[in-house]
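Q: What does the assembled structure look like for these inputs?
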Amino acid sequence: MSKSPNILLPALGVTGIVLGGAYGTMTRSYKADEADIARAQAQAAEARLVSQEEANTDLKSQIALVQDSAKAKIAELEARPAVATSMSAPAPVRDGAMGLGREALLEEIAAWDVDVLPDGRGLPEGTGNAFDGEELFADKCAACHGDFAEGVDNWPVLAGGFDTLADEDPVKTVGSYWPHLSTVYDYVYRSMPFGEAGTLTPDETYAIVAYILFSNDLIDDEFELSHENLGAFKMPNKDGFVVDDRPEAEYAAWSVEPCMSNCKEEVTVTMRSVFLVNTPPEGGSESVMNPASVEGLPSFSSAGASFIPEAQAKPEAVVEVAAAAVEEPADEGAELIKAGEKVFKKCKACHEVGNGAKNKSGPQLNALIGRTMGSVEGFKYSNVFQAAADEGRIWDEASLTEFLAKPKSYMKGTRMSFSGLKKEGDQVAIIAYLNSFLGE
Amino acid sequence: MDEMHKPSRRAFLRGSAAAAAGTVAGAASAQTADPLITDVQDWASITGAGVDETPYGMPIEYESHVVRRNVEWLTASPISSINFTPIHALEGTITPQGCAFERHHSGAIELRKEDYRLMINGLVDKPLVFTYADLERFPRENHVYFCECAANTGMEWAGAQLNGVQFTHGMIHNMEYTGVPLRALLNEAGLGAAGDLKDKWVYVEGADASSNGRSIPMEKALDDVLVAFKANGEALRMEHGYPVRLVVPGWEGNMWVKWIRRIEVSDTPTESREETSKYTDVLEDGTARKWTWVMDAKSVITSPSPQMPITHGKGPLVISGLAWSGHGQITRVDVSRDGGITWETARLGKQGDTKALTRFYLDVDWDGAPMLLQARAMDETGYVQPTKDQLRETRGENSVYHNNCIQTWYVNAEGIAENVEVS
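A:
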């Protein structure tokens, strides 16, 4: 790196300031008569000369000063080469331990280390079959995955899809895609049911896994799945995977100096965006089908666009408007409603409430208090709720409180897999929250 | 903010009108004096917000549209879902935490530092439990890295889908992380029990209900993986794994386990749900690639783009975009304005950092003619970002993940941009 340009930079800065000053003197005499102007100009010119001479002398001595100090600085830096190079370094790793943390206890490791390896290591003792699994599945899994593991809405399909992996839209299920059965046990035991993870016993898990295999026609309903045979179970797509081969299949071929000009003869638009996306100020997005076609768009060559289209069909420009300030509700129950909103997080996976709330795997909850049980149109209720609807039973605060505390005892046979709100405060808060949507 | 401190609605409308006039006439040819200059404005007369009003600041309300957005129909529930970084409206390279994309499998959890525990077990000399305070006593490092979801641009396998770079490329963020190298923690537990490290793995899992778990080969674990507790200088946000997350530079975001609670040294990959049924790439013949961890070089023009139309007409135009590679530094980005017939080498905002976002610019005089805008990144290995055709030729259209294709925006004569595919 050359060192001299840096030294001259401050000197140029000084020149700029001096000239700027002289210009300022001239422009400020604009109100005087012509003689005054001439006189002022003469004086200004003289002053400029004098000041420039002074400035030049000044400049020379300043440059000398700067250069001297720079030389001294460089000499100093060169005497200490370490300062001129980077002092950054990775965090040191000690030879041997630092003595931080404490030894993990065996019972702590047992509580957290529950992952299961493909060969079955890590499986807890237990057993289960599809016959028992069917009931558990209907109770704990079917709300999202369907009674036959066929999947509800966008929730994962767990069964079927065989011989579709090479199709346009492969159906990747436990049966058609998952390479190891250990993964199913591991995932169900640790991460399911959604919203109540970690509540299944090993026997329940074996039974549910067996039911999933059964719904994929991989076992009959008497097959006893256990820690002894799970690791050896062969899944249909076991050999369907290859380790990342991008280095061989792609990297070599694509790492070549790319073309810069005349790379193609002509380029045309072959497809336009399927969805236009509106981005409303309140957040989220709205996808709208794009009606425009590729007809009437120009083609491109090295000469540029073939024509400039007139009045073409254009997508609506995305309107992003600053959100209007939202008035916070300040009534007395606001705190409780806020607390209830937080509790409602436990319900959100399956229920919607508020403006435009739709049925998901659970019914929408607008105007719940005062509503007939099992009465939301378009929702497929369990038998027990259908019966409640026939009897004309109405949701009030007492019944809702009892239901929320223990759904399955209050409504024996409900498909709602949620085990209940244990804290009384949570029940009160959530009812306050739901009541804030009575008018929806 | 009280009424006194708000610019009046009249002043706001006046400002908008003047701005609109500027778009049409151009600033240089203003015929009448601009009232924004000649009138004393409220904000130049009435006092503003006091230092006691905003203990922690949010962006000014005029920027309230620059937010993460989700696409409801993509997933069954917003709790197990993803949203998108507004990369069209951001500049430079650092993503503010508050608008950096989120991907949760069982929602973002609230876990206090005091309740945080990190366990290391498996093939180690001494299984250990660390508290948050313990982690703060290890030598730490700071690095800027991008985190990209493997499914970023995944919808585009089936052709141009959503009209906005936020939605096609917004599953990415780029932050400065502060953390402890994973190798330091493994060293603390001792790897003697693991024997030959060559074929060993670490399995990492989160504390949330999904307990998302991934297997990482030991070589990577000992290389640049960080156990991070700060991002962009402040504590991780809840949605980014507060108080501690894993940072796996250059590799797919699903491995960056949030709320990390356990690290197990193992002699085999766990083959968890997230590394078998998900995050594997189905090829045309129905077989699938597994362990496709690295995010290959990729770039995209963020402006102009569908959410950022050209509103100023012909003349000087800044074409701005982002490039990144999981293999190291971005060394070059080329930009085409005619759909890939001619390419011009863009200017990098600054020398690319390894495994971090690099900003690029092409400063042009737009003649008002339609354009087909594309960007093409190259990284330090010499790899060149592929076209959609190249990707489909080797992989088919069912991979879902790892789509790093060259993206095309059609910009019409009015400056409106649209997501398209070209021949």
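Strands of chain A lie at 102-103, 127-128, 225-226, 241-243, 269-272, 275-278, 286-289, 300-301, 304-305.
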